[in-house]
């Protein structure tokens, strides 16, 4: 099954959607993110092709669904897509996929992470590649001036101390409404679906109360034209009633509609 309206041929596509059904060997709470690409594709067909707010037909937006890849395959595919002037949109999978994707990018860009968790651990459950280390690995890859995390409301004491010492920039969800001056000309956007409050997105790997709401969509609209690549991660279908996957699919549609 393809993502809805993603019927364009690769050669002429502006947006290349693909899945990475990857899951850490040791998930910290819930298992099931490997099922997310299939479910996001499935629910995407709930939406009309016509984007009501933008008054445009998304079937004409130039979306191509390239299928699923392993993490290692995905990095090369993403890099080539960007070189060819296309925008990759990735459906995870655990958040641990993002450092691999960011490291495959070339040129000058900044990374914006939307996430309930700081994910700044050096290792977690014996693995430096855990989803709980995502922001730390990205920080080490791109440097402190090229990454920021928004929506953080959960972290260990050690993470907070190390973030302060190393200069990792992070904000709570209220910053979504406050940020006026965009720090990066080109953006890699990573959306962990647990940035949403669990009342809106219950089907995530690590739900955290007191989350953000639909202002996330306003934020995506604001930065869409600067975004060169995007991932949506941590949907956990076994714990979802459909709401989380629907929101994930809607975020993809929103990016395409407002970036065009």
Explained architecture:
This protein has 260 residues and is of the alpha/beta class. It has one domain: Arginase, Chain A (3-Layer(aba) Sandwich), CATH 3.40.800.10. 30% of the residues lie in helices and 18% in strands. The strands form two sheets. The chain has an eight-stranded parallel sheet, with helices on both faces. Strands 2-3 form a two-stranded antiparallel ribbon. Strand 9, helix 7 and strand 10 form a beta-alpha-beta unit. Helix 2 runs parallel beside helix 3, helix 3 runs parallel beside helix 4 and helix 7 runs parallel beside helix 8. The longest helix is centred in the C-terminal third of the chain and has 17 residues. The relative contact order is 0.19. The model has no long low-confidence stretch (mean pLDDT 95).
Task: List its salient traits.
260 residues, alpha/beta
Strand order of the largest sheet: 4-1-5-10-9-6-7-8
Q: What is the 3D form?
A: globular
CATH C-level label: Alpha Beta
Structural class: alpha/beta
Describe the sheet with the most strands. 8 strands, parallel
Helix content: 25-40%
CATH structural architecture: 3-Layer(aba) Sandwich
**CATH homologous superfamily annotation:** Ureohydrolase domain
Would you count the extended β strands for me? Answer: 10
**Overall pLDDT confidence:** 95
Structural domain tally: 1
Q: What is the name of the CATH topology? A: Arginase, Chain A
Order of helices and strands: EHEEEHEHEHEHEHEHEH
Distance between the termini: 24 Å
Cα-atom radius of gyration: 17 Å
Count of helical regions: 8
Beta percentage is 15-25%
Q: Give the uncertain stretches in residue-range form.
A: none
């Amino acid at each position: 099954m393809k993502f809805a309206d993603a019927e364009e041929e690769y050669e002429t596509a502006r947006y290349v959607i693909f899945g990475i059904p990857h899951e850490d060997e040791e998930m910290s709470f819930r298992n099931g993110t490997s099922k997310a690409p299939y479910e996001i594709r499935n629910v995407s067909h709930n939406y009309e092709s016509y984007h009501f707010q933008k008054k445009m037909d998304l079937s004409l937006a130039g979306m191509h669904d390239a299928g699923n890849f392993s993490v290692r395959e995905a990095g090369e595919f993403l890099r080539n897509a960007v070189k060819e002037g296309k925008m990759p949109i990735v459906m995870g999978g655990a958040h641990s996929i993002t450092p691999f994707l960011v490291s495959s990018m070339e040129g000058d860009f900044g990374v914006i992470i939307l996430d309930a968790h700081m994910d700044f651990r050096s290792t977690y459950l014996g693995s430096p590649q855990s989803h709980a280390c995502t922001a730390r690995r990205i920080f080490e890859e791109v440097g402190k001036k090229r990454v920021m995390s928004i929506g953080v409301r959960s972290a260990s004491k050690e993470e907070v101390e190390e973030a302060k010492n190393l200069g990792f920039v992070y904000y709570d969800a209220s910053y979504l409404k406050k940020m006026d001056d965009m720090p990066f000309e080109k953006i890699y956007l990573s959306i962990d679906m647990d940035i949403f409050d669990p009342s809106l997105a219950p089907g995530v790997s690590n739900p955290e109360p007191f989350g953000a709401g639909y202002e996330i969509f306003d934020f995506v609209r604001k930065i869409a034209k600067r975004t060169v690549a995007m991932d949506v991660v941590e949907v956990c279908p076994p714990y979802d009633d459909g709401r989380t996957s629907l929101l994930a699919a809607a975020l993809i549609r929103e990016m395409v509609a407002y970036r065009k």
